[in-house]
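Continuing the series of single-chain predictions for the mutant panel. This is the parent chain; the variants come on the following pages.
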Amino acid sequence: MQSENADDHVRTNKQHWDAMATRDWPKKANLRKKIRDDAPYLEMMEPKIAPYLKDINGRKVIVLQFGDGLVMLACAKKGAVVTGVDLSGEQVRLAREAAAYCGVDVKLVEADCQNLPKSIPRNDFDLAVAECGIFIWIENLDAWMRNAYRVLKSGGKLIVSDFHPLSIIAEETDGAVTFRKSYFDQHPKIYQPEENAPPAVEFLWKISDIMNAAIQAGFQVDRLEEYYVEQKAKKIPLIPTDFLLVATKR
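Parent structure:
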């Protein structure tokens, strides 16, 4: 259930990501060039979700909260019929520019994935994809999952790779883990970027919250994997940094 401040939170995060999109656009230029030049971006940069996006030529894919748009563009380069949804109008504007640069057609929708517009039809997509930094911006997990479920065809798959909730609240230093807050403390948090962007509101979820929201929406959970993305050379992993969720619309 969303709070009475839900609309304020959405506006705050929209302003944040409008600014972040402009700030970070130059940093991704080389990756956009790789996609344009047909490099295997998904296999190189998203190895956990890549196997599920291997044979997608002609398949309908919706990328939820597409952010920098790289996964969305890579899917389009593989021949998928792609719709991308993002809260930020600036992300949408830049994605349109990136699609032209990469030579692909994508349908872009500026919308909150907790409340997808009716212009996105139900029972229409083969795959719904989201990756890296998704659920921390979502206040209503149940609504997000219901919307993902609604737009998928029967038998369609939800594929999410995201930061693990433990990694968001913890730091690994010299073989020890320090927690900045309790895993069970789920009060919204104000996040202040280091530079050139307004604050945002973060929502901290447990893995069980995410799983239960998927199940409640009607998904059959096919796979949950917790894994470690190496942050420093020769570092021994103590907690997972990321997780993969794959689920099917029954």
